[in-house]
């Protein structure tokens, strides 16, 4: 659900911005596109949104709650070759594949396509599944090199490109891959999962996230990394588009979950 047409704020140099959730005591989208985020299932201790001190002002403490964004515009964007997702996070615990953002087909869909970003074996991991010319699907998986520590802020940028994927952590290239296949099949649902692995509009209650998320941004194209070809050198040089600090500090300094 979103307003039609580009908002007036698009002329401010953020013309690629399609969603911006600051989580400053609200789930409102500040991009001007009015994407609606909804709490589907609360945590074991709370059935309401939990906002805490974050990396930039306040943040959303997911603590295994399940959220969705039902947006035709964002669904269409994620069916394109080129888009960018950025966010800060701080992990309270590392459960089974805690998922930040996802939009994926169900197991009954053939071929099954989509994407998600999660933590796997204490590394940020970016997955896309694409359709080959022979109608078989192929995993494209980027596993970052940065070991994720608890109670520490990190900034993540995941870029999908025409025949490539890039993963940045704290403004530095953490993993990249190029390939010959193309993304030729859209996912079946426009529902995007936040804090959960969302399969064709249905959340997986196991792959949730005990993390705090802040400054979730979704961009068309390369977002703030506006290089024509976002290779490691050009993107790393341009990625000081991260708001504020580049992350990586302990939560006690910024007052996140568990801070004294």
Helix/strand order, N-terminal first = EEEEEHEEEEEEEEEEEEHH
Major beta sheet, specifics?
Answer: 8 strands, antiparallel
Q: Helix share of residues?
A: under 10%
Note the overall shape: globular
Brief digest:
With 260 residues, this protein is mostly beta strands.
Note down, in words, how this protein is organized.
With 260 residues, this protein is mainly beta. Helices cover 7% and strands 41% of the residues. The chain contains 3 helices and 17 strands. Strands 1, 3, 4, 6, 11, 12, 13 and 17 form an 8-stranded antiparallel β-sheet that branches. A 7-stranded antiparallel β-sheet has the order 2-5-14-7-8-9-10, with helices on one face. The longest helix is centred in the N-terminal third of the chain and has 7 residues, at 72-78. It is globular and about 50 Å long. The chain starts with 16 loop residues before the first strand and ends in a 6-residue tail after the last helix.
């Amino acid at each position: 659900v979103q307003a039609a047409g580009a908002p007036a704020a698009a002329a401010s140099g953020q013309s690629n911005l399609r969603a911006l959730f600051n989580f400053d005591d609200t789930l409102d989208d500040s991009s001007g596109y009015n994407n609606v985020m909804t709490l589907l299932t609360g945590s074991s201790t709370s059935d309401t949104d939990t906002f805490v001190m974050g990396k930039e002002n306040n943040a959303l403490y997911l603590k295994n709650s399940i959220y969705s964004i039902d947006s035709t515009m964002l669904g269409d964007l994620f069916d394109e070759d080129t888009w960018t997702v950025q966010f800060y996070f701080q992990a309270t615990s590392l459960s089974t594949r805690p998922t930040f953002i996802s939009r994926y087909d169900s197991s009954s869909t053939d071929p099954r396509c989509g994407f998600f970003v999660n933590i796997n074996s204490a590394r940020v991991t970016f997955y896309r599944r694409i359709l080959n010319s022979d109608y078989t699907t192929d995993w494209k998986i980027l596993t970052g090199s940065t070991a994720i520590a608890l109670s520490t802020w990190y900034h993540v940028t995941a870029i999908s490109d025409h025949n490539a994927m890039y993963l940045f952590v704290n403004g530095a290239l953490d993993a990249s891959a190029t390939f010959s296949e193309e993304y030729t099949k859209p996912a079946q649902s426009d529902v995007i999962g936040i804090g959960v692995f969302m399969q064709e509009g249905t959340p997986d209650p196991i792959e949730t996230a005990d993390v705090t998320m802040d400054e979730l941004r979704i961009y068309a194209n390369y977002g703030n990394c506006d290089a024509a070809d976002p290779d490691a050198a050009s993107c790393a040089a341009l990625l000081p588009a991260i708001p504020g600090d580049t992350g990586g500090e302990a939560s006690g300094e910024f007052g996140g979950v568990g801070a004294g």
